[in-house]
Design a protein that fits this description.
The chain has about 270 residues and is mainly α. It folds into two domains: about 50 residues; about 220 residues, no CATH class. The protein contains ten helices and no strands. Helix 1 crosses helix 6, helix 2 runs parallel beside helix 6 and helix 9 runs antiparallel to helix 10. The longest helix has about 45 residues. It is elongated.
C-alpha cells in the first residue's frame, strides 16, 4: 500500500515539475531572443548620427573614473595574494627565482582582466540596472520617447560604449596595482628592487601575452553594458522591480563575463598560441 501511495506521489510531482521546467526553458529562449533584438537596436543607435558625445563623456567618467579606486584596490589585493601564495609554493620546489614571472604572467594574462570585469559588473551593472529601472517605473523613458528622444541612443548606447571603452583602461590600472603590490609583498619576504622585479618578470613577456587579454575586456564591457541596460529598461513592478533589475544585472553580467572568459581564452590560444 505504501509503495502504491509513494508511486502516486512521485507521478504527481513529476506531472507538476514538467510544466515548470518547460516554462523555464521557454522563458530562457524568450529572454535570449529579446536581448538579441535589444543588442541590434543598441548597435544601430550607436552607429547612426547624431551622436550623444556629451552623454558618452559623462558616462565614461561615471563608469571609468569612479570605478578606478575600487578596481585598483582589487588589483592590489590580487597581487598581494598571488605573491604570498606562490612564494611558499615556489620556495618548496626550489624555483623562487621564478616568482616575478609567475606574478606578471598571472596578473596580465588572467587575474587582472577577470577581476576588473567582475568588479565593474558588480558596481556598474547594479548602478545602470537601478538607474534605468527607476526611469522605467517612473515613466521617464516613456516621456523621452514622447519628446522624440531615442532612449536606445541616449541611455543604452552611451552606457554600453562607455563600458567598452573604459574596461581596458581599468584593466591596466588593476594590472599596475597588482604588480606594484605583488613586488611589495615579495620584497617584504625577500628584499628585491622594483627594477629587478620588473626585469625578471617581463623578461619573456611578448605583446601577444599582453594585448589580447587586455582587449578582451572590451567584450566584458559590452556584456556588462548590454545586460544592465536591458534589465533596467524592461523593469516592471515599481520599487521592488527596480531591486530585481539591479540584482539580476549583477548576477547575469558576472555569469556571462565568466562564460565569455572561458571562450575568449580558448580563442586567444588558437589565434596567438
Amino acid at each position: 500500500m505504501s509503495t502504491v501511495i509513494s508511486g502516486a506521489l512521485a507521478k504527481g510531482r513529476a506531472r507538476d515539475l514538467a510544466p515548470a521546467v518547460k516554462s523555464i526553458f521557454i522563458e530562457g529562449f524568450e529572454w535570449f531572443g529579446e536581448i538579441g533584438i535589444f543588442c541590434a537596436r543598441v548597435v544601430r543607435a550607436a552607429v547612426a548620427p547624431p551622436y550623444e558625445v556629451g552623454e558618452l563623456v559623462r558616462q565614461c567618467d561615471a563608469i571609468g573614473a569612479k570605478s578606478l579606486s575600487l578596481v585598483a584596490l582589487a588589483g592590489a589585493a590580487t597581487g598581494v595574494v598571488l605573491s604570498l601564495q606562490t612564494h611558499d609554493a615556489l620556495t618548496r620546489f626550489g624555483a623562487k627565482s621564478l616568482l616575478p614571472a609567475v606574478i606578471v604572467f598571472s596578473i596580465i594574462k588572467e587575474s587582472g582582466p577577470v577581476i576588473t570585469g567582475l568588479v565593474v559588473a558588480g558596481r556598474v551593472g547594479a548602478g545602470i540596472g537601478a538607474e534605468l529601472g527607476s526611469m522605467k517605473v517612473t515613466e521617464q523613458i516613456d516621456a523621452m520617447e514622447a519628446s522624440a528622444v531615442d532612449p536606445y541612443k541616449f541611455l543604452a548606447a552611451t552606457r554600453v560604449l562607455a563600458c567598452v571603452l573604459m574596461l581596458p583602461l581599468l584593466t591596466l590600472a588593476a594590472d599596475f596595482s597588482g604588480l606594484v603590490m605583488g613586488w611589495l609583498a615579495n620584497a617584504l619576504a625577500d628584499p628585491i628592487s622594483f627594477r629587478l622585479f620588473i626585469e625578471n618578470g617581463f623578461k619573456n613577456v611578448l605583446f601577444s601575452d599582453f594585448i589580447p587579454p587586455t582587449f578582451k575586456t572590451t567584450i566584458f564591457g559590452f556584456i556588462i553594458g548590454v545586460v544592465a541596460c536591458f534589465q533596467g529598461m524592461r523593469t516592471k513592478g515599481g520599487t521592488e522591480g527596480v531591486g530585481r533589475s539591479a540584482t539580476s544585472s549583477v548576477v547575469l553580467s558576472s555569469l556571462f563575463v565568466i562564460l565569455a572568459d572561458v571562450v575568449l581564452v580558448r580563442l586567444i590560444q588558437m589565434l596567438w598560441g
